[in-house]
Amino acid sequence: MAEAGGVSRQSYAAIESGSAVPSTEVALRLAASLGRSVGELFQLPDRPVSYCTGTWGGARAPLPGCRVRLVRIAGCQVAHPVSEEHRPGVPADGVVEAFKKRRVKVRLLSEAPRPVHLSVVGCDPAFGILAHALEREHGIEVSWSQRGSRAALAALAEGKAHIAGAHLYEAESDTWNGRCVRDLIPFPCTRISFAIWEQGILLRPALRDHIYGIGDLADRRLRLLNREEGSGSRELLDEALTLAGVETASVEGYRTAATGHLEVAEGIAAGAADVGIAIRAAGLSRGLGFLSLRQEAYELIVANHFLDLPAVEILLDVLNRPGTRKQVEALGGYDTMNMGRDTA
After folding, report:
1. Which of 27, 44, 71, 333 could hold 119 in an S-S bridge, CB 3.0 to 4.6 Å?
2. Secondary structure of residue 45 in the 3-state scheme
3. Residue 248: is it exposed, middle or buried by C-beta count within 10 angstroms (0-12/13-18/19+)?
4. Separation between Cα atoms, residue 123 and residue 85, nearest integer Å
5. Measuring CA to CA, which residue among 282, 169, 263 is closest to residue 225?
6. In this structure, how many other beta carbons lie within 10 angstroms of the beta carbon of residue 17?
7. Cα four-point dihedral sign 110, 115, 121, 122
8. What are 109-167's pLDDT values in tens digits?
């Protein structure tokens, strides 16, 4: 190798050990002799490791090494876990080094993506269509985290998100979300219609002709994949079980807690459960059967003090495009007639 590089053995040994830097000519000769590029053989010294601290924005305490995206919300740094987005290909700003009292220390990655402009927390998998359009057409980076309705509203109330998604039924008024938003969020908000969707029980394909109602879940041979407490899906399941006179203790898997509709569908498709509570579109994406329970209104709740943000204004514009509605309805089980309208 010393001969190939045109240097002495001592000089080559110094280069190999990292105690000497080769000239451009020597580097090119060594790369050519090995059939590699110069970049593969020689790199700049690592930059000093940088850290930052911020508020933890996830639903569960993070483990060391958890990848995060950072977003500045009302002057505060918030770290959202990439893992909750169900999009493992999303690049991260850093990884968690330490966690204490809802604060995280994040080791920053040298090749970080563009800064996040908008933080959205909710459970509708169709929001990915909007996130993609915002990034592709406007260069707006969205941190999109999967969370149940009450947890999403809590994140908005605590300053950990710009927008929350919710579908909480209020039986006394036969309406959606209004009282919950007023009770859980201490500042004025605007509720924007996203879609009416169908929600019900997802089934393994082999069960399509054997499950006729919610009462069949009491059969202990059926394993349920439930949603987390505080999610609109779990509240719907509880209501349906109560109406059917089924005790939750008789349903195998009732205490399981998946995060998001797609996680329920993926669990059933993988054989981890027989049935689960989720929207029709999630079941269609995995070829599952579906037993409809009801139609629900899914809304985006925006803090009024964020309405003037450019990213929020562009999001509202995208919501009102016919093409966006068609893309969402193509997923199945969605009615987007009122998408983008103020529901107050």
Report:
1. 71
2. coil
3. middle
4. 10
5. 263
6. 8
7. negative
8. 988 888 999 999 999 999 999 999 999 999 999 998 889 999 999 999 999 999 999 99
